[in-house]
Design goal:
With 351 residues, the protein is an alpha+beta fold. It is 23% helix and 24% strand. It is built from 9 helices and 11 strands. Strands 1-2-6-7-4-3-5 form a 7-stranded antiparallel β-sheet, sandwiched between helices. Strands 8-9-10-11 form a 4-stranded antiparallel β-sheet, with no helix packed on it. A hairpin with a 5-residue loop joins strand 3 (140-145) and strand 4. It is found in: Cell membrane.
Length: 351
C-alpha cells in the first residue's frame, strides 16, 4: 500500500501533536435529572396581591372633582299655542276691495245671491287665524294655491254658512240648522261652489282643496304673515260669519287706487314706437369655392352638395337674389354644429 505521503494527506509531527491536544480527553455523561423543568411552589398571598394590585405610590395624585353644575330652568316657548291676532283699528281699502270681489264671484261664479261685508281686519299667521276662529262641527275651509303650488289663501266657512251653501246647491232653501259632520258628498258639493272663488279674488289663485280640520289646514299653509278679514256674509235672509285669510304679499294685485283730485288732468302715456320684427332674405356669394369634379358629376335633381368651406371664408350678402345689391360683406364659418356669418362691413341696404 502506498504511504500517506504519496497521496498528499500526511501531516507533520508538529501538526499531529496539536490535533491530539485539541481533542477532549473526557466526555460528560447524560443526566436526565438536569433536563427536567424546575417546579415552583404556589405563589404566596403577598405575591398575588403585588401582581393584582401594583404599587402606584409614585403616580401623581388625582385631580380634585369638579363642582356639580347648577341646573337652571330655561323658558321653552309653547309651540302648540299660536300667536294672538293683532286687530287693526282701521279697515283698509284692500280688504273692502277683496270683499267686493268675493261677493261678485259668489254671484257670477257660484250663482248664489250672497254679499260679503267686512267686519274687522287683523294681522297674524295662518295658525293663529284658524285657531282663534270658532271651532264648530261642520265647518269647512277652502284652500287656494299660488302658481307655485303653495297654499296662500283660505276661506273659512262657518258651519251654518257651509250648510246653507250645500242646501242651495241641492236646490233647497236654508232652514233650521242642525250641527253635523260633513260627508264626502257635502265636501264635493262645496268644492263645486267655491272653486270659482279663487280666480274671482285674484287671477293668480286657483282652488286647491276643501278641509274640515283647522289644524290640518294650518299645516298645509305657507308660513309667514297674513291678513285676516272677518266677513259677514248675507245669504238669503240670514247673516253668517266667514273668515278670509290672505298671505301678506303682492300676490293679490290690490294696490291702492289713486285719489280722484278735482281739476287734475292726467296726461296720456306716450307710447314709444316699438321695433317690429323684419324678415330679410339674403343670398351669400362666395369669393372662391373648391369642389372635386366627381361630386359635381354625380349631382341629380334634389340632391344636396355639402360644401367643405374653410373657416373665415369671405362672402358677400346680396339683397333680392343673385343680381341684387350688396347688403354686407361677411366671413363664413362654423359656430358649433351650424354654419354662421360674421359681418365685417355693412352695405347701403343695412345702413
Amino acid at each position: 500500500m502506498p504511504s500517506t505521503a504519496d497521496d498528499g494527506w500526511d501531516m507533520s509531527p508538529r501538526r499531529e501533536s496539536a490535533v491530539v491536544l485539541e481533542m477532549p480527553t473526557s466526555f460528560e455523561t447524560f443526566d436526565a435529572v438536569k433536563e427536567k423543568p424546575i417546579l415552583r411552589e404556589k405563589l404566596s398571598s403577598a405575591e398575588i396581591e403585588a401582581l393584582l394590585r401594583p404599587d402606584l405610590s409614585d403616580m401623581a395624585p388625582e385631580p380634585a372633582p369638579l363642582p356639580p353644575a347648577k341646573v337652571v330652568d330655561r323658558a321653552i316657548p309653547d309651540l302648540d299655542t299660536p300667536a294672538v291676532l293683532t286687530p287693526r283699528t282701521d279697515v283698509p281699502e284692500d280688504a273692502l276691495r277683496v270683499a267686493a270681489r268675493l261677493s261678485l264671484a259668489l254671484r257670477q261664479g257660484c250663482g248664489l245671491r250672497a254679499a260679503a261685508t267686512v267686519k274687522a281686519v287683523s294681522d297674524g299667521t295662518f295658525a293663529s287665524a284658524l285657531a282663534t276662529s270658532t271651532v264648530e262641527t261642520g265647518q269647512a275651509i277652502a284652500c287656494f294655491a299660488a302658481p307655485n303650488g303653495e297654499i296662500v289663501a283660505m276661506l273659512s266657512l262657518s258651519a251654518e254658512l257651509a250648510n246653507a251653501l250645500i242646501e242651495s246647491a241641492c236646490g233647497g232653501k236654508p232652514g233650521a240648522y242642525t250641527p253635523r259632520e260633513l260627508t264626502p258628498v257635502d265636501a264635493a258639493l262645496l268644492e263645486g261652489l267655491v272653486r270659482p272663488l279663487g280666480t274671482g279674488i285674484s287671477s293668480s289663485l286657483s282652488f286647491a282643496r276643501i278641509e274640515t280640520d283647522a289644524e290640518f289646514a294650518a299645516a298645509l299653509a305657507r308660513p309667514g304673515a297674513v291678513d285676516v278679514i272677518d266677513l259677514d256674509v248675507r245669504f238669503e235672509q240670514s247673516r253668517m260669519p266667514a273668515r278670509l285669510i290672505l298671505a301678506s304679499d303682492d300676490l293679490f294685485d290690490t294696490g291702492p287706487v289713486p285719489g280722484n283730485g278735482q281739476g287734475m288732468v292726467t296726461a296720456a302715456p306716450a307710447h314709444a314706437p316699438k321695433a317690429a320684427p323684419v324678415t330679410a332674405v339674403l343670398t351669400a356669394r362666395i369669393a372662391s369655392l373648391s369642389v372635386p369634379l366627381s361630386r359635381l358629376t354625380d349631382l341629380k335633381a334634389g340632391s344636396t352638395l355639402l360644401l367643405g368651406l374653410p373657416a373665415d371664408q369671405p362672402v358677400e350678402l346680396l339683397s333680392g337674389g343673385r343680381n341684387g345689391p350688396v347688403a354686407a360683406e361677411a366671413q363664413i364659418g362654423r359656430k358649433g354644429a351650424h354654419m354662421a356669418l360674421r359681418i365685417t362691413k355693412r352695405g347701403p341696404a343695412l345702413r
